[in-house]
Amino acid sequence: MRNFCVVAGTAAALTIATATGAWANWSKSPFSLVQGTTSQQWVDEQYNEFHFTGCDQAGTSNSVNVALWQQIDFGTDTKIDTSTLTNCFNGAGYTSTATQSNLPYDSYYLEVTKLGSGCGACTGAADKVSVDTTLAD
């Protein structure tokens, strides 16, 4: 009986810890544009869009590739889509937006996969990155 209580308590704690790290809609200001940077996770179903606003980058052309990943609890995460964002580099008020639909209900996150033409040492930042999971807006 004692072993069962330990296992059940551990499972409950893991469920709570996982649930508190995932949000539906979120934003972060500023957001680092460094190859390999990942966002916080969010829970989604069917549709999402993400916005990068006011991007700036040193040492390369003005673009960033961002991958949408589906977080798999007991396996390898799955890359859903990759978007090349350029409009946000036109100035502080400019936004690049990418959308995905027909997604299964799960946790997702973004990863900066490439800056410009592939400069691994280049850095940059977006004034704001946000994720919106509401189709009707």
Architecture blueprint of SSEs:
Blueprint: H1 2-20, E1 22-23, E2 26-28, E3 31-32, E4 41-58, E5 64-71, E6 78-85, E7 95-115, E8 123-132
Parallel strand pairs: 1-4
Antiparallel strand pairs: 2-8, 3-8, 4-7, 4-8, 5-6, 5-7
Task: Explain what you see.
- The structure is a single chain.
- It is built from 1 helix and 8 strands; from the N terminus they run αββββββββ.
- By secondary structure, the chain is mainly β.
- Strands 1, 2, 3, 4, 5, 6, 7 and 8 form an 8-stranded mixed sheet that branches.
- The protein is globular.
- The N and C termini lie far apart (51 Å).
Q: Which structural class do you get from the secondary structure elements?
A: mainly beta
Poorly predicted runs are 4-21
Sheet of most strands: 8 strands, mixed
Question: What is the helix fraction of residues, given as a range?
Answer: 10-25%
Give the overall average pLDDT.
Answer: 83
Order of helices and strands: HEEEEEEEE
What does the radius of gyration come to? 17 Å
| % residues in beta strands | over 45%
Characterize the overall form.
globular
Task: Report the end-to-end length measured between terminal Cα atoms.
Answer: 51 Å
Helix run count: 1
Count all strands and give the number. 8
Quickly describe the structure.
By secondary structure, this protein is mainly beta. It has one helix at residues 2-20, and strands at residues 22-23, 26-28, 31-32, 41-58, 64-71, 78-85, 95-115, 123-132. It is built from one helix and eight strands; from the N terminus they run αββββββββ.
